[in-house]
Write a structure and sequence with these properties.
Blueprint: H1 2-6, H2 11-40, H3 50-75, H4 103-109, E1 113-117, E2 122-124, E3 132-140, E4 143-151, H5 158-207, H6 223-271, H7 279-306, E5 314-318, H8 319-337, E6 339-343, E7 352-356, H9 357-374, E8 379-388, E9 391-398, H10 432-442, E10 446-451, E11 457-464
Amino acid sequence: MSALKLFNGSKLTLRFFVIFLTYSLAVIVIIIIAVAIVTSREAPPPEMPHENFMEFEKNNMKSIAYNLSMFYGKHGSFDKLKDNPDLLFKRKLPAPHDAPPNRDHDRFFIHKTVLLDSDGNLVFGKDKDAKMLFSRVLKYNGEKIGTLSIKAREMIPPPLKKLFTEIGLALIFVAVIAIAISFLIANFLSKYFLLPVSKLANATKKFSEYDFSSRITLDRKDEIGMLAKDFNEMADRLDKYEKMRKQWIADIAHELRTPLSIMQAEIEAVQDSVWPLSMKTMDHLHGEIIYLAKTVNELHLLSVAESKGLTLNLEEISVYSLLNDAAERFKEKFKSAGIGFESEPYKYSNIFVLADAYLLRTVVNNLMENTLRYTDKPGQLNVNSYKEDSMAVIVFDDTPPAVPEEYIDRIFDRLFRVDSSRSRKHGGSGLGLATCKTHIEALNGTIEGAASPLGGLRIIIKIPLYKGESHGKRKNFDS
């Protein structure tokens, strides 16, 4: 808990700190090992068996002892060597025939020795009371002039010890700097990553409260920037769907309230003897009930289709048979309404699709009914079909009125109407095109609206072509 308080309760910051600190310390350890390896190359002879090592040290001592005896013979004392044993090597002195002639090594070796004069006073060396590996009495002309000893386990000369001490202090300083830098980097990276995450978390929390207005603004091109972009797109869709849901509920309430209010008013009028209970009143009430039943049925079909609950009976369907059947069934209605119907069946006589006959027929019926309800009289409806890659395309074009361009993308929304030309007075529930969209999408197809060359609305339907082998079992529609 105390560590988290140091990082303002951020676990991610603490993790970044641990990662970078571990990395920094690992680098320091590697540096220490490297320094140790490098400096060890200047150390005295490499490891060897104990017997050989002892013999090696004795030979070294013999060489130093000879030089010290010669120095004493020349100067009469060791006074000049006090605190300056290197003076022994200022001049080349002859070595005994059985001593190693390695003067450089002698220079190193002397730093781990202790020299006492004949009275036991320290000439050079340190820790004269330390444990000695072995000692040698120095004589000149048979007279004792001093004692030379080698300290046990004293394998590193003072200059090298000083170097190691300085390196150790430097590494401690580097470690402190590494901790500070790790802390700063951890804080920077945690803020860099946590800021967008915090924004996402806050916006997501608002989503749980059905507030889809939050957006995340990040000027980044990395994965987090892409995540923020995807989040904003999702928020746009959710905001749109939430507004549509609220509008849909309001529209359904309005659609059901209107006929119910009419029925209530007429029944109360009959009950209050304002109107007589005539066949005209009954017919009017019956019409409102039929409208209500139709609206409820279409809403049910929409909910089933959108929940992927439709049971499809896919089969090979002739587009020619489908459209010809629709033309025959609506011929008299179109004639009575003063609307012409034109098609060129020879162009699509060989087009077959894989679809559910009931759904496809419902779609065509809805589109024909739309033309009857909303097209100005006299008017015209042209229907055509053709192949496009692996899809069959069916196009409906009618004459004015047109749907304003800004509403084209919304005509397939549930209960949507364009006030100037799509109103309840024509008898529509506002669910026809929405039903068409759910049915076509259930068949793995697409449906879209556009401006018609005839001045009205164009509806373009695309359905997958039938790719199987024909066995003569094709769906034909009876007029």
